């Protein structure tokens, strides 16, 4: 069955191209601009509140007022992006349900590992992309390829990267991951159904029922296997929100570690692409 994200992308491409045919030569640019004007929802709210509370200024005659201050437009793409940007907060609710795993030795190790992995990914991805001949904007787009779109967008814009290439990489990571997770994780035993034999979870049998979270909010004193933790970290870093969603849907014990890894990795990626001196180092590597 076709992946829902991939299906949505293909439908939107077909829709925008067909609609552009009705507007002539420059129809595609007009349709895309109307679809996503770059106006965030919070700016509309802030502007509305400011206009309501501020005194009415004395009008100044101008040749064409609309050219001086064009009205803000809010397209369907802006609405979708506003919802997507709020999605990162929902993972905080999931993390609060898994406090035992987070505030443990394994959780602290995940924090340190994801911070180091974010630094390595930001610098090495841009360096390797530049080494294979990509221009600086395309190379910089690779720096935030493993985060959610809500975090990848500001990270890419901060270093003047190619936003289209970055979005393609982010969505591609998620789609390919969801196609491969059932096969790979099933072989590792990280996502498995209840086993009829109630053997000890410290054995080699990875199909034991303890590898499945019966209730994500339940308290469980059992220590998680290193394979489960490693799988969660790998999916959180590489698969981002789509990978974490899959683990929660499968009720895997790796899900809390994946959510933690995704959050820390994404936040640190933004830090390394927006804060000096990391930002300057990254731009220099991609401009060589």
Automatic annotation (TrEMBL):
Its main location: membrane. It comes from Escovopsis weberi. The chain crosses the membrane at residues 105-128, 227-248, 255-275. Residues 1-22 form the signal peptide. The lineage of its organism: Eukaryota, Fungi, Dikarya, Ascomycota, Pezizomycotina. Keywords: Membrane, Signal, Transmembrane, Transmembrane helix. InterPro entries: CidB/LrgB. This is Uncharacterized protein. It is a multi-pass membrane protein. GO terms for cellular component: membrane. It is found in: Membrane.
